[in-house]
Structures are given as C-alpha cells and as structure tokens.
Specification:
It contains 5 helices and 3 strands. The protein has 140 residues and is of the alpha+beta class. The chain has a 3-stranded antiparallel β-sheet. The chain is globular.
Length: 140
C-alpha cells in the first residue's frame, strides 16, 4: 500500500497545533458558489455540511439524532432535511423511523439542475469557474 502524504491545515483553519485533522469536508468552489447552494436557509446549509462531514466522502450515509441533537432541535432538522431534498442535495434512501433506526440518506446531483437551468436551456445555471467567475457568456 502506498504511503499518503498528509498536508496540514493552515493555523487559521484549525484549532489543532499540528494542523492535522482526522475528519474534514471537501467542498468544491463550483458547488459553494452555485445558485442552488446560495438559496439554502442557514439551518439547511448547516445540516448539509454536517452530513458531508459524517458521510466521510461516501454517497450513502446515516445521520442519527445523536449527531445533531446538541446543535439543532428535531423540528428544525426535519424542515432542513425536507428543504435539502426539495433542492436536490440529498434523498432519503430508507425511512427507518418505524424500525427505531436512523434514516439512510444519499447525496444527489439534482441541485445542479435547477428550474432556472431548464428555463434558460443551459447545462448548469449559476455554475462558476475555479476563480469564482460566472461561466455564462464564455467563449466555447
């Protein structure tokens, strides 16, 4: 097995003196600046980022109440999940409330295809390049 080089975080990005984090969220610029992401409410954004952390890079994951009960009440969490589903960021893969187990969620790509995309006939409305500039109107 190949050895991986570990790149530490900058001092302003972590509280650890070593700069090494065991868990972190990989978050692309194009997603962060996409119009669908900017339309999310604060609770939905917070839930989404915590789900990304818990998923550890996997598409399917569980997110039990124990993971959010200290920072969000269940009613607000449930509304945030519904908002994320409507916006195309996640889907509830298994509803397990009747089994008294955590639900199984999956990340989706539906957020890339907003209503504005269909109306304008564009591939990805609101998409941006790596410098944060809009890709609309760029020469092919």
């Amino acid at each position: 097995m190949a050895r991986r080089n570990i790149t530490p975080f900058n001092p302003w990005e972590t509280t650890r003196a070593s700069g090494i984090e065991k868990r972190y969220v990989r978050f692309g610029n194009s997603q962060m600046l996409h119009s669908a992401m900017s339309k999310l409410s604060h609770p939905a954004y917070r839930v989404y980022m915590n789900m990304r952390l818990e998923a550890g890079g996997e598409q399917g994951f569980i997110f039990p109440r124990a993971k959010y009960k200290d920072w969000m009440v269940p009613d607000v969490f449930n509304r945030a999940v519904k908002e994320l589903v409507r916006a195309g960021f996640i889907e509830v893969h298994e509803h397990n409330a009747h089994r008294r187990k955590p639900n199984v969620y999956r990340f989706t790509e539906g957020w890339k295809h907003t209503e504005a995309t269909a109306a304008a006939g564009l591939g990805h409305a609101g998409s941006v390049d790596d410098d944060g500039r809009s890709e609309k109107g760029k020469a092919p």
